[in-house]
Specification:
Helix content: 55-70%
Radius of gyration: 15 Å
Number of helices: 3
Oligomer: single chain
Shape: elongated
Distance between the termini: 19 Å
Length: 70
């Protein structure tokens, strides 16, 4: 919701949650998955990379820096 609403704190929070998830996944041990599950996981990883690139390396980053007076 934070990224959708362009809240200022949502960009760093996205990175923090992604890093925590990555670190937790390292300690889960080996797993066996179906091909479809693996494909969907890889698609999720690609989409996450695209989102991170958009919110940090394009003019979209300026949308998160705007302040609105209520």
């Amino acid at each position: 919701i934070g990224l959708y609403r362009f809240w200022r704190f949502s960009r760093p929070l996205t990175i923090i949650v992604w890093i925590i998830g990555f670190l937790l996944q390292m300690f889960m041990g080996p797993t066996v998955d179906l091909g479809l599950a693996t494909s969907l996981y890889e698609l999720s990883a690609v989409l996450t990379g695209i989102i991170l690139a958009l919110i940090y390396m394009t003019p979209v980053k300026e949308w998160f820096e705007k302040t609105y007076d209520a």
